[in-house]
Amino acid sequence: MSEQPGRPDDAAREQDGVGGPDAFGRLWTPHRMAYIKGEGKPVGDDDCPFCRVPRLPDAEGLVVARGEAVFCVLNLYPYNSGHLLVVPYRHVADYPELTVAECAQLASMTQQAMRVIRWVAGAHGFNIGMNQGTVAGAGIAGHLHQHVVPRWGGDTNFMPVVGNTKVLPELLAETRVLLADAWTASARSDPPAQ
Ligand SMILES: [Zn+2]
């Protein structure tokens, strides 16, 4: 490093390579590359994250709530902060294969997920739904899961369109604690006011 003026920590940030500094900031998202390349995707039923997650402690598996037939977990690759997945414990790919009880609990837990997210984060709207099959966009097609994506006015910007990047203002572990605490509180009393 020469004796040119600069902030004291500039030297530490310098790295040999092609190109030079410019006016643009960089948001590095290597976790997206892992997703794009398919790393961590199950290769068979034994390697299914939705079968594995319920066996982990809540904090480690990002589990928000557990029912008898269905559980609720944070999406590791969220479209938005608070993006939840409602998932049957049973490894089932096709929605018509669910039992009546599983269907009912999937529906009621989806309702409760909406209530809790509204209560905690004041969501203005939601995208709810399932991608059935890889061609329909299911990332983990072998084990069905219902997306609950909270939406706020103005929550989309140029980043997903231009940069294929989502900007998420809250870490997953913090989101999980907020939602899990609110879920527990709502179960103890009347449903939270909306
Ligand atoms: Zn599974």
Task: Give a verbal description of the structure.
With 194 residues, this protein is an alpha+beta fold. The protein has a single domain (37-188), classed as HIT-like (HIT family, subunit A). It is 33% helix and 13% strand. The chain contains 7 helices and 5 strands, in the order H-H-H-H-E-E-E-H-E-E-H-H. The chain has helices spanning 10-13, 30-36, 49-52, 58-61, 100-121, 158-163, 172-188, and strands spanning 63-66, 70-74, 84-88, 125-129, 146-151. The protein has a 5-stranded antiparallel β-sheet. Helix 5 (100-121) crosses helix 7 (172-188). The chain is globular, with a radius of gyration of 20 Å. Mean pLDDT is 80; it is low at 1-8. Zinc ion is lined by residues 48, 50-51, 91, 143.
Task: Give a short summary of the structure.
This protein is α+β, with helices and mostly antiparallel strands and 194 residues long. It has helices at residues 10-13, 30-36, 49-52, 58-61, 100-121, 158-163, 172-188; strands at 63-66, 70-74, 84-88, 125-129, 146-151. The radius of gyration is 20 Å and the shape is globular.
Features:
disordered N terminus; 5 strands; single chain; binds zinc ion; HIT family, subunit A; alpha+beta
